[in-house]
């Protein structure tokens, strides 16, 4: 997979002297390049590309490429030291790089934590490309990416990996292994909580919060160096590196990329007295995210132009992906029993600008793609829990933050705590006759398939739904059985929630894993894959359940089998 | 609002009702009732044009047949395996456009006209069911044959030697398409108030017209819409509506079976679509703009409103010199009214809406779950309405055995009611320039 600069003759200096397009002059074998790269690493005494490669935000003619270089052994993430380094990059139409279509150079340094982020343009739509970086005589592993189809392309299907909530300390990222092993994905969608802020001993594995592996730095991340070090640590994970190298990613953040239960001017897990002012902390978190993730913020790969994360990506006439940022602009979460605040139209989860943008995205104007997909960090389907005893609601709340002890029906950290905004979105969908709206959600460490009721209270009678929501489980973050230590209690909880919420059709509170979603003009199908024990690196991955929504229906129904092409070993 | 307006119901008015015109056509000999082999015993009244157009070039494949079945007012989510098995089977076995849309104003007459003309209302002259007729000085339905300003595919086919038939359950559709078709069913019996023939009779007429065997048959099945309008349980269990869906599906099943029994299916194209979908409001959820306009010094007594259920069309009847100021005020008042989704000037947003001058000076759409009731709160009491954007999604699929429809094909493309005419024209090999149709052929 790796390609050596020595073998190709494409050293960094050669690359920097030869920018632009055109065929490469040498082909190399995988073995040759691996040997050469390892030899170069030995000579240098360290690996320059130790954090992998990544691509993201594919457009019909462009894609963001990412890597990080470690120019000296001491220039570790967050160290703030290390020389300016020029990095060469290549994009080729073939894995052997015999047909290089774009190449260039990029100079990085300590001011950006030696990360490299390039928006490569001039590419062909719906095309698979291979890319790699060179620096200091070493060559990165080869990444594979794929551009989006042209805006008017009629796609037969789009297949997306869905994942969220990866907590390093709680276990190994087998879910990323599952995505990396798939050869049938057009992209991976990360719905937030890509990393966690806690220090060792907090929020780990099981009821006792055991660290399967410990966070670096060994304290809650607060400063810019902390955020950089934590990003750097996560990107050393083998399965995460493989998943990034294998597919383009489209990402959004939730709260833990900054800190727990964040809102516009604070967070539950932010103490101004000891952790400084909130805008500064958030700006540091956003800066590190921009440096370390293959994403266009404020519409570009440039780090200097702002941190707007909500954006659209289009995939022919089949789908438009609308990625939300539900942390930066939201009002503070209301009290759990503060019904007036929960319904207060002056409170917002999106902010006014993003709300207008979202409604503009969710239209049926001529030329709007069929599936209006929303990358939605927190759940939008209403969830009420009337009738559950408080001992149960406390356990559920520990997992998801869903419930107050007295059984009030709202999770105030998700759309349930911002009902005016939800009503505005749902009313818009009804008013404009918008069909095929699909919210894809993470955050709550459990798998859900829901219809989206105009009025939850009488949904059993009216069945008036404005869309569908599919929620993926967590990679490792604790779920119900992890918190209670009593998996035998879960089925009764799930049954009670399903009974109280007729629009919720599927709920799995106890598994970790990932989803694979396929969109076609006829339907969307979501497969849930679950892992075994997250404390084991090689824990097995198996198919759990599939749900489908037929076009125009706003309903979900159980599917009998996973998608065609699902590897036999995980069926 | 789908009901017949007062102007066209008034026999004393010079506006002639469609049935009366049909009777005149028979009395004067312009059309004659079918008898003998082509009219089933005791069957529906099907008239034929007395003078068939001179046959031009005989098409190369005259054995082909096209049937356009409009399931009036049906929502796309109402086509299910259990509720409407025949429609579901047609959709699954044919080609389906789940992203299909009705066109503004989402009413019956304009969308049927767009189906047959393939162009937008600024060219057809038919933007809604009801308009304020400035020459007449009255609000009236666009149910006159002369209301359509451009040739339909019916006339284009006739001119090329094909035969055509219309089986339209609603009086105003019967009126607006008039005597264009070679064969024309005189809808009967029609129900009072709704002005439409139940689907069981409409389908029987369609089956009878198969005996005459026109190349194109254009059928409107009105029950889903009419029962939907009347369904006071529309916002909950939809009791009447569901009954209509089951029955209409059965009628469609009869028609398909008849085609198969006659051996016609193998050379047929069957298009199934709706003209608009349906939305329901409670009794008190009406919007009445008239008193709001009347309360304005400039507008009082100088605004006429054509109520179209989910859309109000407002017309300035005062001096032209004051039109701009009046439109500004009309827009401001409409936009401030509770339940109005948006209001716009068709003239100022000509490129976006393409509604034409007949749509008046201001068009207002209501929100989902609301309806207009003008000029009085009791003018429109019916719970089911359409015309507003909430009612844009429609079912749209092609089937038939003619070999032009790939089985199981589903497309993300945004099909529309305007696509019917170019699809039919293409099916029959009619040649046309690029500007003739704004819709797209879907075969």
TrEMBL record, chain B:
Database matches in InterPro entries: Alkaline_phosphatase_core_sf (IPR017850), Phosphodiest/P_Trfase (IPR002591), TAT_signal (IPR006311)
Name of the protein described by the UniProt record: Alkaline phosphatase family protein
Natural source organism: Nocardioides bruguierae
PROSITE patterns according to UniProt: TAT
Gene3D superfamilies according to UniProt: Alkaline Phosphatase, subunit A
One GO molecular-function entry: hydrolase activity
Domain of life of the source: Bacteria
């Amino acid at each position: 997979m790796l390609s050596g600069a020595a073998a190709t003759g494409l050293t960094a200096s050669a690359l920097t002297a030869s920018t632009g397009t055109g065929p490469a002059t040498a082909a190399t074998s995988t073995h040759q390049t691996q040997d050469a790269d390892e030899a170069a690493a030995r000579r240098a005494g360290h690996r320059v590309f130790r954090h992998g490669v990544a691509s993201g935000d594919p457009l019909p003619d462009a894609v963001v490429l990412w890597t990080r270089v470690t120019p000296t052994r001491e220039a570790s993430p967050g160290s703030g030291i290390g020389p300016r380094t020029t990095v060469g990059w290549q994009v080729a139409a073939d894995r052997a790089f015999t047909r290089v279509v774009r190449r260039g150079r990029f100079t990085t340094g300590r001011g950006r934590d030696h990360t490299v982020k390039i928006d490569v343009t001039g590419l062909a739509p719906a095309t698979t490309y291979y890319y790699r970086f060179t620096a200091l005589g070493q060559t990165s592993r080869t990444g594979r990416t794929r551009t989006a189809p042209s805006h008017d392309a009629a796609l037969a299907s789009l297949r997306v990996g869905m994942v969220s909530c990866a907590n390093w300390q709680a276990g190994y990222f087998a879910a990323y292994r599952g995505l990396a092993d798939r050869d049938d994905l057009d992209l991976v969608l990360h719905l937030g909580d890509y990393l966690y802020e806690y220090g060792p001993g907090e929020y780990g594995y099981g009821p006792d919060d055991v660290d399967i592996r410990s966070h670096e730095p060994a304290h809650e991340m607060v400063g810019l160096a902390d955020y950089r070090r934590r990003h750097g640590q996560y990107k050393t994970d083998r399965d995460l590196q493989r998943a990034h190298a294998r597919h383009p990613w489209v990402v959004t953040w939730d709260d833990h990329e900054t800190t727990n239960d964040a809102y516009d001017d604070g967070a539950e897990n932010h103490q101004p007295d000891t952790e400084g002012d909130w805008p500064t902390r958030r700006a540091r978190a956003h800066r590190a995210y921009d440096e370390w993730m293959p994403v266009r913020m404020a519409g570009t790969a440039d780090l200097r132009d702002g941190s707007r994360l909500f954006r659209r990506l289009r995939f022919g006439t089949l789908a438009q992906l609308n990625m939300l940022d539900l942390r930066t602009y939201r009002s503070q979460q209301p009290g759990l029993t503060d019904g007036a605040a929960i319904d207060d139209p002056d409170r917002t989860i999106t902010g006014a600008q993003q709300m207008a943008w979202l409604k503009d995205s969710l239209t049926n104007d001529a030329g709007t793609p069929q599936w209006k997909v929303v990358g939605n960090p927190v759940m939008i389907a209403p969830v009420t829990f009337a009738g559950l005893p408080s001992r149960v609601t406390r356990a559920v709340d520990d997992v998801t933050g869903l419930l107050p002890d007295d059984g009030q029906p709202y999770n105030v950290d998700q759309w349930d705590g911002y009902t005016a905004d939800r009503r505005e979105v749902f009313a818009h969908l009804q008013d404009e006759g918008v069909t095929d709206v699909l919210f894809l959600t993470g955050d709550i460490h459990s798998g859900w398939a829901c219809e989206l009721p105009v009025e939850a209270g009488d949904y059993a009678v009216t069945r008036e739904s404005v869309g569908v929501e599919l929620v993926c489980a967590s990679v490792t973050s604790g779920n119900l059985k992890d918190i209670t230590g009593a998996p035998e209690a879960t089925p009764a909880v799930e049954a009670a929630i399903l009974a109280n919420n007729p629009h919720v059709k599927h709920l799995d509170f106890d598994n970790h894993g990932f989803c694979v979603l396929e969109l076609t003009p006829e339907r969307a199908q979501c497969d849930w894959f679950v892992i075994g024990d997250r404390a084991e690196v090689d824990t097995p991955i198996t198919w759990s359940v599939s749900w489908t929504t037929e076009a125009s229906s706003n309903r979900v129904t159980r599917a009998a089998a996973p998608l065609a092409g699902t590897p036999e070993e995980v069926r | 609002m789908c009901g017949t307006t007062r102007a066209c119901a008034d026999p004393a008015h010079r506006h002639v009702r469609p049935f009366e015109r049909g009777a005149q056509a028979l009395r004067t000999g312009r059309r004659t009732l079918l008898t003998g082999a082509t009219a089933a015993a005791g069957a529906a009244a099907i008239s034929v044009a007395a003078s068939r157009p001179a046959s031009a070039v005989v098409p190369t494949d005259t054995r082909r047949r096209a049937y356009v079945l409009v399931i009036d007012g049906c929502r796309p989510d109402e086509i299910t395996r259990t509720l409407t098995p025949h429609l579901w089977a047609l959709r699954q076995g044919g080609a389906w456009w789940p992203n299909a849309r009705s066109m503004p104003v989402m009413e019956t007459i304009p969308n049927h006209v767009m189906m047959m003309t393939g162009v937008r209302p600024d060219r057809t002259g038919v933007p809604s069911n009801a308009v304020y007729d400035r020459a007449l000085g009255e609000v009236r339905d666009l149910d006159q044959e002369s209301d359509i300003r451009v040739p339909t595919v019916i006339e284009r086919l006739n001119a090329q030697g094909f035969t055509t038939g219309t089986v339209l359950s609603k009086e105003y559709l019967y009126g607006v398409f008039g005597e264009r078709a070679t064969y024309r069913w005189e809808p009967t019996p029609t129900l009072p108030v709704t002005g439409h023939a139940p689907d069981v009779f409409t389908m029987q007429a369609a089956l009878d017209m198969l005996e005459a065997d026109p190349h194109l048959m254009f059928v409107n099945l009105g029950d889903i819409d009419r029962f939907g309008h009347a369904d006071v349980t529309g916002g909950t269990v939809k009791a009447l509506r569901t009954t209509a869906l089951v029955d209409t599906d059965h009628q469609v099943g009869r028609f398909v079976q008849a085609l198969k029994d006659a051996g016609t299916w193998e050379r047929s194209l069957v298009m199934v679509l709706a003209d608009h979908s349906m939305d329901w409001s409670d009794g008190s959820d009406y919007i009445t703009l008239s008193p709001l306009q009347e309360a304005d010094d400039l507008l009082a007594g100088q605004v006429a409103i054509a109520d179209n259920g989910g859309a109000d069309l407002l017309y300035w009847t005062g001096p032209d010199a004051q039109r701009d100021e009046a439109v500004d005020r009309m827009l401001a008042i409409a936009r401030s009214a509770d339940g109005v989704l948006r209001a716009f000037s068709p003239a100022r947003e000509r490129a976006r809406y393409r509604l034409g001058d007949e749509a008046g000076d201001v068009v207002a759409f209501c929100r989902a779950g609301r309806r207009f009731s003008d000029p009085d709160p009791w003018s429109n009491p019916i719970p089911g309405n359409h015309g507003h954007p909430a009612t844009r999604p429609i079912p749209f699929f092609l089937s038939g055995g003619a070999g032009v429809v790939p089985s199981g094909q589903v497309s993300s493309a945004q099909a529309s009611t305007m696509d019917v005419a170019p699809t039919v024209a293409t099916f029959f090999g009619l040649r046309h320039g690029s500007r003739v149709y704004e819709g797209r052929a879907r075969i």
